[in-house]
Design brief:
This protein is α/β, with parallel strands linked by helices. The chain is built from seven helices and eleven strands. Helix 3 links the parallel strand 1 and strand 2.
Amino acid sequence: MTIRRRRGKAPGPDTGWDDLADWYDAWAGTGSDHHRRQAIPAVLELLALCPGETLLDLGCGPAPLAPFAARAGARYTGVDVSPQMVAHARKRHGRRAHLLVADARELAASSLLRAASFDAAVFLLSLQNLDPLGPALESATWALRAGGRLVLLLTHPCFRVPRQSGWGWDEGRRLRYRRLDRYLSPLPVPLRPPSSGPGAPAYSFHRPLGDYINGLAACGLLVDGIREVTRPAPHGASVAERRAAEEFPLFLALRAKKVPAADPRASS
């Protein structure tokens, strides 16, 4: 699947995550509040890991999911294109995780990975930073056994469009609402945290929900589970703020299963 771009220059394959590795590890290395309270519980529920199963974490960053996989008795492998990210992950989780430098869009190019060798795979807040989408989903499918499951967790593409969405207040109705300025148009958005300094930024790629569903289907991955995850309003929030927090999800999690290829002899 090729991501449509309507204007602007498409970013190159170097997304600059080495430059942001220290910042990201400080935020997510042990699991940010968002990871611990919302993202990881939703992912674990959909993965439903069993002891002895193998899990592939694609775009693992500092691997905050690794200790949770270990507690479930699963064997964890994390891959990330950034050597600095993998170095951080190895410092934190090296004894209970297998961590590799590899491009999640080109897993078959790694001599350390094998086709159809994982029971489950996950993109935990990483697929939205990968482009093009098609090769990333195809790589995940390549790594999964028949019947294996893939879980995607993203900031919700229908409500959280980087730089193109936000909160508004309707004074007349006393309602807090979610405002969207664009949705259907794919959009690359540069990420440059204040601590990152000069250099190439990383990118977040907004895509409409249909791109993800159709991309999964094109790879023979059948969606069979969905979670829309909200974040509680802060302490002391108004009634309107609490209601809005309960109604507009922060994250979208999808589970899809790899459908075994049909036997051509069955139709003969």
